[in-house]
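Class, study these two lines:
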Amino acid sequence: MSRRLDDLVTSTEHAELVHPLRAVLQHHFLDGFVSTEGGLSLVMMNALLLVPLIMAAFFYPVPVLTVVGVTLLVAFVAYEGYVIWRRRHLRA
């Protein structure tokens, strides 16, 4: 005799279960948090990461330039590595 855990809890606690995710979706609690502007809000949030970098560049220009250069180099190498890997492994 196997019963679901939800049925067992309902029979012993005499209360209906409330699943948090289901309640959030059914009552539209997330409607105010979803932006209708599309990708512009993501671009604006990423731009906030540049403000501390620019402020640090005023006081530490060489280390900031080094960090930015290394970051761009690593990103470029990773992207090119992915492109080369995709060409060799995903041929049909």
Summary: Residues 4 and 74 are 51 Å apart (CA to CA). The mean pLDDT is 80. The longest helix spans residues 61-89.
